[in-house]
Each structure stands twice: as C-alpha cells, then as structure tokens.
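Predict structure. Input: S23 ribosomal protein, 157 residues.
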Amino acid sequence: MILEELKVYQLAMEVGEESWTIVSKWNHFERDTIGKQLVRAADSIAANISEGFGRFHFKENRYFNFVARGSLFETKTWLDKAVKRNLITAEEFSKLKIEMNELGKLLNGYIKKIGKENSVGEPEAVYFSKNSIANDPYEFFYNNIDSINWLPFPNDY
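Output follows.
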C-alpha cells in the first residue's frame, strides 16, 4: 500500500486544502494571526500521517499518528475561534466539522490497526469504543467514537 491510497491521508489533505482556501481570502491581520495557526495545524495532520507512514517501526508510525490526532484537535480549536470571530461562515464550519469528525474516526481506526499483523494498512471501516480497547496500553488516547459527534464542537453553530 502507498501513502496516497490511505483514506485517512486523503481526507487529511482535503481538510488542509480547504483550510488554506478559506484563510487565503482573509485580510492581513486575520491571516497573520489565527489564519496561519489554522493552516499550520490542518496541514500538520496530513504531514504527521505521512511522516509516520515513512517510519521503519510501527511504534514510530503510531506515535506520529498520535501527533496528527493532536493537530486535529488543534485545528478544531482554531475553527471554533474562527467561527466565533465571524471569519468563516456557518456553512464552511459545518462542512469542516463533518469532515473532521470523519477524519477523527478514520485516524483512531488507523492508529488501532498500526502494528497489527505487521501491516501498515488502513482498517476496513472498523471503529472502536472504549469497551473494545480496554486492554490496550494506549487506551487513554482513544475516545468513544460510536457517533460522529465525539469531537467536542459546540452545537451553537
């Protein structure tokens, strides 16, 4: 399998490009403050998935995907700030929120799959709840992802 075939990587790239497109339309001050942070965080998701994929050992791959997951949450924070400051529309926010929730599910599934059966492949739409990973030493990194609303986006928007 090659990196570009991973759905989690493809969606991470899409979120980064959409963030860039939105931020590139902002005025200088907004772009220079919140915009740069948003784009860097969004781009970091795909970059860390890529770096992990290129690492020799599955534990390194898993580590970089945990970093990507952190960048996903950072991106979510910058999007929350952008919508509260009226820098993005409710429609843009809603679209990105849905994509990021899906990306979170894919990323958690991918992290769980890394190192199993010596594969680097992506899981076949298998998502895990806390009950199914109770014996996993990385348990605290996972969320209950039985629904797409596991990321703590406010419901106001």
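Residues 48 and 68 are 5 Å apart (CA to CA).
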